[in-house]
Amino acid sequence: xxxxxxxxxxxxxxxxxxxxxxxxxxxxxxxxxxxxxxxxxxxxxxxxxxxxxxxxxxxxxxxxxxxxxxxxxxxxxxxxxxxxxxxxxx
Amino acid sequence: xxxxxxxxxxxxxxxxxxxxxxxxxxxxxxxxxxxxxxxxxxxxxxxxxxxxxxxxxxxxxxxxxxxxxxxxxxxxxxxxxxxxxxxxxxxxxxxxxxxxxxxxxxxxxxxxxxxxxxxxxxxxxxxxxxxxxxxxxxxxxxxxxxxxxxxxxxxxxxxxxxxxxxxxxxxxxxxxxxxxxxxxxxxxxxxxxxxxxxxxxxxxxxxxxxxxxxxxxxxxxxxxxxxxxxxxxxxxxxxxxxxxxxxxxxxxxxxxxxxxxxxxxxxxxxxxxxxxxxxxxxxxxxxxxxxxxxxxxxxxxxxxxxxxxxxxxxxxxxxxxxxxxxxxxxxxxxxxxxxxxxxxxxxxxxxxxxxxxxxxxxxxxxxxxxxxxxxxxxxxxxx
Lengths: 90, 383
Fold this sequence. Notes:
The complex is a heterodimer. By secondary structure, chain A is α+β, with helices and mostly antiparallel strands. Chain A has one domain (3-84): Beta-grasp domain (Ubiquitin-like (UB roll), Roll), CATH 3.10.20. Chain A contains two helices and five strands; from the N terminus they run ββααβββ. In chain A, strand 3 and strand 4 (63-64) form a beta hairpin. Chain A is globular, with a radius of gyration of 12 Å. By secondary structure, chain B is α/β, with parallel strands linked by helices. Chain B has two domains: 33-265, 3-Layer(aba) Sandwich (Rossmann fold); 282-375, 3-Layer(aba) Sandwich (Oxidized Rhodanese, domain 1), CATH 3.40.250. Chain B is elongated, with a radius of gyration of 23 Å. The interface between A and B is large, with 27 and 52 residues.
């Protein structure tokens, strides 16, 4: 099962979990599974139209899905997905 | 072509002169170089200290804040003796004490669209150590327009990010983050906290990148983003590519001059928690104190449970802001309610949520429990 790494600012919506196992053959299905497991995270990742918010970046390994096939990018067991939000603290 | 080093400077920088990648020529290069540091807070502290120690000839510091004792847990360039002083002056004094051979120029003003290009124009590199989204987008755009590298870092709780955004050679900040998050969605350090040593770890990485760029050595973090987590002690790197649709550095860029960044981000360009929900929606701590004597008011505390150990109001119901939307059924729309948090920022967002859910008799406690602790119950601590 692919593993999705959750950044600190979003962990309050995943019961404090830093990594979540997600089911799905592509990014879109994996994110749907994430929001099914943790519904309150949904508005922080998707906009009202159901698209990934522009300030949220999702990487497979070291590649941004924007540079691959977006939410249609296929994933497989053992893939490591990383959500990267923008943070501004200094 | 680079300035000579004095006898004293040769002794001071001897550990640099011994490294072949730096050497005498590199040290003279550093003496001839300049760096502008935006913010003298958590990140700006280690950045400024190490760049000064390294012998960067001219350092510019931009900040308009004064030193507060709540800064000292992480902003190590300041000290107890400089609480209440201007941050740029507190920082300059420390830098000159560390290295009297360098020049430190201070800008005791907010970094804005009006002054940013003028301030940044004469520096070789820009280091982004600010604490808010508007100034981060401004710093990026200034660096793109002036063709300078923007050595970026940001932090939150246990997480840090660092990169070098240099549009001439790779992506810029907007390539990665075309738009800021909606106001209130990403908590600031003033709201969410930060491990004091985190900006030390990440700020020294920023300083390292700046020195490499100025010396022209090593592999800079251009096109790469470092993701650090202090709890897991993980350093992950991801690849960043130039976004062909980037509005400032792409081939069809439509943003050609600095914009209104507070409007773009929908938040003010500082990290001081705002204590107000707007006209007619606030209640002051004095008003609340009076009202509590006569009639029953429901108090709703939207802070995190661990904050209640620091200070609390009796009989308040605690529902953390992040859970509020899911737990509305625990509240009665008919109740007269006062919602509060630490300083009034989170509760103002909670109030918006309640109003949109049909609650009509809710007020936001202006200034939060900290205002209550300052003005009503001085036995409570301010944090």
